[in-house]
Amino acid sequence: MTVLEDSPFVRACRGLPGSHTPVWFMRQAGRSLPEYRKIRAGVGMLESCRRPELVTEITLQPVRRHDVDAAILFSDIVVPVAAAGIDLDIVAGTGPVVAEPIRTAGDLERLRPITPEDVGFVAESVRLLVAELGATPLIGFAGAPFTLASYLIEGGPSRTYLKTKAMMYGQPELWNALLTRLSEITLTFLRTQVDAGVSAVQLFDSWAGALSEADYRQHVMPHSAAVLRGLLDAGVPRIHFGVGTAVLLEAMGEAGADVVGVDWRTPLDVATKRIGPDRSVQGNLDPAILFAGWETVERETRRVLAQGASAPGHIFNLGHGVMPETDPEILTRLVALVHEISSR
Ligand code: CP3
Questions:
Q1: Could you identify which of 179, 184, 283, 311 might form a hypothetical disulfide with 223, taking C-beta atoms 3.0 to 4.6 angstroms apart as the criterion?
Q2: Which tens digits make up the pLDDT trace of 93-146?
């Protein structure tokens, strides 16, 4: 294990002071970069996640260009689910699409447990990256059981999560069996990344904001907590993120996170009061602000930094992923601005 404890990013995750507020962006690798669009031309998304040299190049592109304080492994939340035997594709402009959704106990048999060898290409990618990145930490990640279950049950993206919630409320045994299996797959996927050398992990429960706090605590939190608890002895900071999670922030911290990711709807000082003094926060500039002109970007960045200062540690990020239409030069300027304002 090679956690880069002295990096501003890991120090902020641990609530320790650093030379400046670290900054990285969810979806920093991807369609906002012309060099990404070029190298991905003609290669499917899942296929590109399975080629370690390609993963390495795509992961490094935003680090070279923007001077961010952390890299995030280029992969996708459905990669371990595909390795577990589920027939799925990642469709451009749509997202993951599952050929035969999971709706019954019989369907669950198609979701096998995974071994580290099933995702050996991920371990290989991490090893190549850690060697290239030097002092810049690499963040590993996985989808949380609820968000993964939503794709498996719905068969693709959803606005209402109708079938997902119908199973959660109506078939609790099947629901718990599915989320237990997903938490085991997720833990194996994350442990593989940790063993190969990532310095932190982020658990994406992107769509958990569809739930009330009571339902989250009853039906979802135990499964996410099993994943985060399973990493306790790994020694890496654990980031837990979702969108629209204002009412869940406290529970998401309690689930076992060192850092709670916050979207743009909740100011970071308010979020910190909910989460408590023992955890750092990550976020939370609205990705749409980057389309509003530099003066606005600068003003809002100062606000986010000021509000983030009330937490024990703050990692600057957007409130969700970089939009594909974003001008990459704005992102480069934003990194420099965060470094300049926060340098101490
Ligand atoms: O730079 C990074 O952040 C690392 C790479 C990364 C990807 N997916 C690459 C990707 C990460 C961290 C993810 C996680 C992911 N994937 C999440 C959680 C994060 C979030 O956004 O809340 C979710 C919900 C998914 C599922 C998924 N995969 C979606 C919704 C999409 C977008 C569909 C589209 O085309 O708009 C994908 C595809 C995907 N994953 C792309 C990338 C770069 C786009 C594929 C392409 O370039 O064609």
A1: 179
A2: 999 999 999 999 999 999 999 999 999 999 999 999 999 999 999 999 999 999
127 has catalytic annotation: no
Distance 3 CA to ligand 1 centre (A): 25
Contact 134, 63 (CB under 8 A): no
Residue pair 67/332 in contact by the 8 Å Cβ criterion: yes
- Give tens-digit pLDDT for 234-267: 999 999 999 999 999 999 999 999 999 999 999 9
Residue 1 has pLDDT above 80, yes or no: no
Q: What is the C-alpha separation between 141 and 56, in angstroms, rounded?
A: 15
Is the CB of residue 90 below 6 angstroms from any atom belonging to ligand 1?
A: yes
> 71 C-alpha to center of ligand 1: Å?
15
Which stretches of the chain are DSSP H helices?
Answer: 8-13, 34-40, 45-49, 52-66, 79-83, 105-108, 120-133, 145-154, 162-170, 172-196, 213-215, 221-229, 249-254, 268-275, 294-308, 328-342
At 318, is the secondary structure helix, strand, or coil?
A: strand
Q: Which of 51, 65, 76, 195 is catalytic?
A: 76
**Contact assessment for residue 194 and residue 140, using Cβ atoms and an 8 Å cutoff:** yes
Name the residue with the closest Cα to ligand 1, atom 28.
Answer: 95
Active-site residue flag, 27 = yes
Q: 120-133 and 172-196 are packed helices; what angle lies between their axes, rounded to 10 degrees?
A: 40
Question: In angstroms, how far is the first alpha carbon of the chain from the final one?
Answer: 30
Catalytic residue among 27, 65, 191, 274: 27
Distance 16 CA to ligand 1 centre (A): 30
- Reading across the β-sheet that carries 71-72, which strands appear in turn? 71-72, 138-143, 200-204, 238-241, 259-261, 280-285, 314-318
Q: Which atom of ligand 1 approaches the CA of 242 most closely?
A: 22
pLDDT tens for each residue of 21-73: 999 999 999 999 999 999 999 999 999 999 999 999 999 999 999 999 999 99
Whether the bond into 284 is cis, omega within 30 of 0: yes
* φ, ψ dihedrals at 242, nearest 5°: -150, 170
